[in-house]
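Revision sheet: structure tokens.
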Amino acid sequence: MALKNLSRSIEGCVAVITGAGSGMGAATAKLFAEEGATVALIDLNEPGVLAVEKEIVDAGKSGLAWIADLGSKLEIDETISAVAEKFSGIDLLINNAGVVNTEYSETIDGIENTFAVNHLGYFLFTNLLLDLVKKESESRIINVSSAAHHFVKGMQWDDINYKDDFKMGLKAYGQSKLGNILFTKQLAKKLQKDGVTVNAIHPGGVNTSLGNQNNSLLGRVLKVILKPFFRSPLKGANTIIYLAEIDGLSITGAYWVDGRVAKTSHYSKNEAEAEKLWRLSEKLVNQEFDI
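Predicted:
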């Protein structure tokens, strides 16, 4: 699907993109740079993100790379400091980094890796950058979620790590993607008077390196089998590009699929649960954000 009739120029904008070392993040970064944006590339994959940076710079465009594990509070803090030193404002923040783990693992902080990267990484990275995002007019935050949020009926508050029921990690992944939607809705509510739109998207099945660092043999085999059915990274990024470049975007707190607002699970609309996740997230990152 090609989304057309975009009229907002991003020339001169600053776009921060996580997970920019491969897949959708890299495709989005290269397109934005080609259109005149300055692109900040954040990724744990050092060879990948440096290669994307080099391709952008070699084409005479503006791109800067930072290597960071978005499951690590320390590395997020360090990256935020570096980004804040470089830019006075941010027009676009694309939270795209993500993992799918088929084997259980925890971060140094004792948080299950899928939840740490896919939800807490978005939560902390975004909140720490908000002052810079608010400085630009019509700035936009886009969170990459997934239809996988339907894998779970709700947040598993009594075992947020899914330590006792991890299995192949599908429910843990679904919970993290549900977290993206709850976070999107709650942040949009908090920023409704600040001129910042916050939206989530489902990119469809995309052929990326998502989660390669911690997959079982079965997980790798399944990816090979399903590869012919995946979209290209650029096609997966269509809705990100649409939300970044459509003129006069006023919708916020929504979930988008193929350039249209789509329905989410009944649970994801629960404002009390969204607030509960916000407070738990603050506790897990040991920092409060009263916006």
